[in-house]
Amino acid sequence: MNKLQDKIAVITGGSSGIGFATAKRFVAEGAEVVITGRDEKALDAAVAQLESRATGIRGDVSSREHLELLFAQVRERFGRVDVLFANAGIAPFAPVEAVTEEQFDTLFDINVRGVFFTVQEALPLLSRGASVILTASVVAQSGFPGTSVYSATKAAVRSFGRTLAAELSPRGIRVNVVSPGLIETPFWGKVGLSKDDVAAFGEQVVRRTPLGRPGKPEEIAAAVAFLASDDANYFAGADVVADGGLIHV
Ligand code: NAD
């Protein structure tokens, strides 16, 4: 514990699921955490559970204006960012013939533009030795029916991880990607499938998963805390896959 003592961490999508579990872990490791999300109520509820070392700032990562405001507030309050977890994302699933232009654009606006400009806006505040972690997914490496656009957004995020690592390493900033497999979070209630279809999809994925179960958000948080810490000082451009063996076995 205390591997992130007094580090200033910003987590987008920190009010729920993987982002929230990571915020809890970061606080337990001694960090000061800023979490963002779109829903004020959810954000307040999350901050209330994070003791006094957390601040919630409402905002939408697909809006440049919101990102500018977010980092202006972080600058004013903390003056720097040591750890950036660009994690906010959505996943409406749909078979290829049912995807609308609006769905396509919204997915890319949040999952791709949102991640890219989160990093760009944070850049002036990122200290030497800072760690940036981006949330991709195993879907960037394998085909799952109904996830064509979502998977493409995550492949883009995985690509950012490589290129930004090459570009920012000379400034002492490490950039890495975490790729979760099937993780039990509220995400699955928002993919646009019925409960039965979500359950069937989950069963299918678990059958292909050597560890034979879905993951917990805390298990992704542990990987992110590692990447954020000095223990990962020799990690740059990596894709840390936490999926119970789904992709590689
Ligand atoms: P979640 O729905 O529990 O959390 C998503 C968070 O992102 C919420 O806090 C939400 O408010 C925030 N968010 C969504 N759109 C936003 C926007 N436009 N601006 C700001 N915040 C926004 O889901 P989760 O499972 O914790 O997902 C976190 C990340 O993990 C996502 O990028 C998701 O694609 C990825 N992921 C999830 C799984 C899984 O099985 N749950 C697997 C692989 C990757």
* CATH architectural group: 3-Layer(aba) Sandwich
Bound molecules: nicotinamide-adenine-dinucleotide
Please identify the oligomeric state: single chain
What is the global morphology? globular
**CATH topology descriptor:** Rossmann fold
Structural class: alpha/beta
Question: How far from one another are the termini?
Answer: 31 Å
- Assign the CATH superfamily: NAD(P)-binding Rossmann-like Domain
Give me the number of helical elements.
7
In percent, how helical is the residue content? 40-55%
What does this structure look like?
This protein has 249 residues and is α/β, with parallel strands linked by helices. It has one domain (8-90, 104-181, 217-242): Rossmann fold (3-Layer(aba) Sandwich). It is built from 7 helices and 7 strands, in the order E-H-E-H-E-H-E-H-E-H-E-H-H-E. Helix 3 packs parallel to helix 4 and helix 4 packs parallel to helix 5 (148-168). The structure holds nicotinamide-adenine-dinucleotide (NAD). The site of nicotinamide-adenine-dinucleotide (NAD) has 30 residues, from helix 1, strand 2 and helix 4.
